[in-house]
Design brief:
This protein has 146 residues and is of the alpha+beta class. The protein has 2 helices and 6 strands, in the order H-E-E-H-E-E-E-E. Strands 1-2-4-5-6-3 form a 6-stranded antiparallel β-sheet, covered by helices on one side. A hairpin with a 3-residue loop joins strand 1 and strand 2. The longest helix has 17 residues. It starts with 9 loop residues before the first helix and ends with a strand.
């Protein structure tokens, strides 16, 4: 069992998740309860490749990437359990997603993801994302572990 001393930095996160740049969307984990929840953030930079097309004259982080970031945070909560380490977390669906604000370069996207259910390699979590204390996105994340 790994000793996960908080906060988790990029090198720790890469030891847990299989994702790599440019799709690794969690910069730091600040709170962690393995198998149950994780809190962390992403520092949004104008240098990210999706801003070349979304939108060059008014850069916004795409909502699907916000959901992906929350799902990755949930993956960290799951894969820090010794019996699940090394599994491959995959999206199985997104329900009740709502985007309530814009995420722009320079923002600190603070996220929390809670695991609601896990049975036979399938599960559900709920994620919330805020910028400057204001809710900007939330949704239910359905996943499978391979």
């Amino acid at each position: 069992m790994a000793d996960w001393t908080l906060p988790l930095y990029a090198e720790d996160i890469r030891r847990i998740l299989p994702h790599r740049y440019p799709i690794l969307l969690v910069d730091r984990v600040t709170a962690l309860e393995p198998g149950k929840s994780a809190h962390g953030y992403k520092l949004v930079s104008a240098n990210e490749p999706h801003f070349q097309g979304h939108f060059p004259d008014y850069m916004l982080m795409p909502g699907v990437l916000v959901m992906e970031a929350m799902a990755q945070l949930g993956g960290i909560a799951l894969l820090t359990q010794p019996e699940l380490a090394g599994k491959l977390p995959m999206f199985a669906g997104i329900d009740h997603a709502r985007f309530r604000g814009q995420i722009r370069p320079g923002d600190k996207l603070e996220m929390e993801t809670y695991i609601d259910r896990l049975r036979a390699g399938m599960g559900r979590g709920h994620g919330r994302a805020c910028v400057d204390g204001k809710l900007v996105a939330e949704g239910d994340i359905l996943f499978a572990l391979a």
